[in-house]
């Protein structure tokens, strides 16, 4: 079945998140949808939500700690309150905007791996690397696996070309196919595509060989669009 994930980034409030999750849950239940569905709300909107078994709420980020003196961060004490056991790690916005190094990302990965969390691990290249061709692109991507145990059983990968995130520019089907095929040859884990995925193109993208689903930002923030995205991919 397809894996469809929504990353809220810095969007939605506690109230609108609860409405969104409840509405998606009702749809999954009513239509008996079997796809694996994930939503990653802001830290302030995390809560204990009653959801179907195939609908999982995760955290966009957390520090590699239970608790402590890390201003502005959350740890497992906060996540445990809401029984959250799923985390996004390595998103390009945390790498490129917030300056997370591969060392820090690998520490975080190891910490949450040891706790048995489901990890969606993000990889991807900026435009100047893409423009150097597929070999340089793969070289850059494989560096993002340094310190990462890719045999971890609870791992989902997400390939997100940085130049396609929130820009409206989607990678071509050939771009996606070439990178996904290469990664899958090395690492046999579910592999999502992310980067300007929309209602209109999600089905076509998810039909590309070795694309196991999508991690979606902007186009998933309206609940009716997110439901349509799940609807468009439910039989894949």
From TrEMBL:
Record GO cellular component, one term: cytosol
Listed pathway(s): Carbohydrate degradation; glycolysis; D-glyceraldehyde 3-phosphate from glycerone phosphate: step 1/1; Carbohydrate biosynthesis; gluconeogenesis
Residues that hold substrate according to the record: 7-9, 166, 196
One Pfam short name: TIM
Subcellular location: Cytoplasm
InterPro entries in the cross-refs: Aldolase_TIM (IPR013785), TIM_sf (IPR035990), TrioseP_Isoase_bac/euk (IPR022896), Triosephosphate_isomerase (IPR000652), Triosephosphate_isomerase_AS (IPR020861)
Catalysed transformations (reactions): D-glyceraldehyde 3-phosphate = dihydroxyacetone phosphate
Domain of life according to the entry: Bacteria
Keyword Isomerase: yes
Gene Ontology terms, MF aspect: triose-phosphate isomerase activity
Active site: 91, 160
EC number(s) given by UniProt: 5.3.1.1
UniProt main location, coarse: cytoplasm
GO BP field: gluconeogenesis; glyceraldehyde-3-phosphate biosynthetic process; glycerol catabolic process; glycolytic process
Membership in a protein family: Belongs to the triosephosphate isomerase family.
Role of this protein: Involved in the gluconeogenesis. Catalyzes stereospecifically the conversion of dihydroxyacetone phosphate (DHAP) to D-glyceraldehyde-3-phosphate (G3P).
Self-association state and partner proteins as the record states: Homodimer.
This protein's name: Triosephosphate isomerase
Source organism (scientific name): Arcobacter ellisii
Gene symbol of the encoding locus: tpiA
């Amino acid at each position: 079945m397809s894996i469809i994930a929504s990353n809220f980034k810095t969007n939605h409030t506690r109230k609108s998140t609860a409405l969104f999750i409840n509405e998606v849950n009702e749809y999954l239940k009513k239509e008996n949808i079997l796809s694996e569905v994930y939503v990653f709300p802001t830290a302030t909107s995390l809560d204990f939500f009653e959801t179907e078994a195939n609908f999982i709420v995760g955290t966009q980020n957390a520090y590699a700690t239970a608790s402590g003196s890390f201003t502005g961060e959350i740890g497992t004490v906060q996540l445990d309150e809401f029984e959250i056991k799923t985390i996004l790690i390595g998103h390009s916005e945390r790498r490129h905007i917030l300056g997370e190094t591969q060392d820090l990302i690998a520490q975080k990965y190891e910490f949450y791996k040891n706790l048995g969390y489901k990890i969606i691990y993000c990889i991807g290249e900026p435009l100047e690397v893409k423009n150097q061709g597929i070999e340089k692109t793969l070289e850059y991507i494989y560096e993002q696996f340094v310190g990462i145990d890719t045999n971890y059983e609870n791992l989902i990968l997400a390939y997100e070309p940085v130049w396609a995130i929130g820009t409206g520019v989607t990678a071509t089907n050939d771009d996606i196919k070439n990178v996904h095929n290469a990664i899958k040859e090395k690492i046999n884990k579910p592999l999502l595509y992310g980067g300007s995925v929309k209602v209109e193109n999600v089905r076509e993208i998810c039909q590309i060989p070795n694309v196991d689903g999508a991690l979606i930002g902007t186009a998933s923030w309206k609940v009716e669009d997110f439901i349509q995205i799940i609807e468009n991919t439910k039989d894949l």
